[in-house]
Specification:
The complex is a heterodimer.
Chain A (H helix, E strand, L loop, with lengths): L1 H11 L1 E9 L9 E11 L11 H8 L5 E14 L2 E13 L36
Antiparallel strand pairs in A: 1-3, 2-4, 3-4
Chain B lengths: L1 H15 L2 E9 L11 E13 L7 H13 L4 E13 L3 E13 L4
Classes of the chains: A alpha+beta, B alpha+beta.
Chain lengths: ~130, ~110
């Protein structure tokens, strides 16, 4: 019985979710994109979280001239007794939206207009509209 | 009498769970910016029953994602709140995902 229990843990592991997030989903869902990064950690020894960084680059590489939206991000951990595999999976949709470069909304304020410092809205603040 | 009380307690724990904890709530942005009246609320939820921690996948999250999209097949879903919670039971628990958003029909 004990052997079976250990074997189950070693083979299957126990997977659980740490966090989930989802961004607005576009109407055009014909071009899915997916990226995944993972790191296996022994006895909890982990000195950085740099393994996450390629995730964004990977998603963008799959959609070089478009907008990636509807991104479901799952952060999960699989435990095999003393070994953990941390995995982050991001799935979304690529759209070559005409508004990918913010469009006219980004330019609606004239540089000479008086703006509040609190409510100022720069071109960088205006998110591209998804379709 | 004692046995009956024990049985009742165990049954209560097993059927109703003894705690419900929310781990995370995420709110997405509202994009495109349209009035709330323009859209309709869509909702999707899925669950995963886990005994003693033995589970090998997190597919229930993907299922909620697909269900939410199927609720709004041709429109944009925006202002999405994602809730991840757990209801604890007797040596078991149920992981729950609830996704709610605003479905905006395509501009005609």
């Amino acid at each position: 019985m004990k052997k079976l229990f250990v074997a189950l843990l070693l083979v299957n592991g126990c997977t659980h979710i740490n966090s989930v997030s989802l961004t607005p989903i576009p109407s055009q869902r014909s071009q899915p994109v997916r990226a995944e990064v993972s790191r296996t950690i022994f006895l909890g020894f982990n000195f950085d979280n740099d393994y996450i960084d390629p995730l964004v680059d990977d998603l963008k590489r799959q959609c070089p001239n478009g907008v990636v939206s509807g991104i479901l991000t799952k952060d999960q951990t699989t435990s095999y007794l003393i070994v953990f595999t941390k995995r982050v999976i991001a799935t979304g949709y690529c759209n070559n939206a005409r508004s990918a470069n913010a469009g006219p909304r980004a330019n609606r304020r004239q540089p000479s207009s008086v703006e509040s410092t609190v409510n100022s809205e720069s071109a960088m603040d205006v998110a591209p509209e998804i379709n | 009498m004692k046995t009956a009380a024990l049985f009742l307690t165990a049954a209560l724990l097993m059927t109703t769970g003894c705690a419900h904890s929310i781990h995370e709530v995420h709110v997405s942005d509202f994009n495109p910016g349209r009035s709330l009246k323009d859209g309709r609320r869509v909702k999707a939820s899925t669950e995963q029953f886990v005994v003693l921690g033995f589970t090998g996948n997190t597919d229930y999250v993907d299922d909620a994602y697909k269900k939410l999209m199927s609720e709004c097949p041709t429109g944009v879903i925006t202002g999405i709140t994602t809730q991840f919670s757990t209801s604890l039971g007797f040596f078991s628990w149920t992981n729950k995902i609830l996704m709610q958003g605003l479905c905006l029909a395509p501009k005609g």
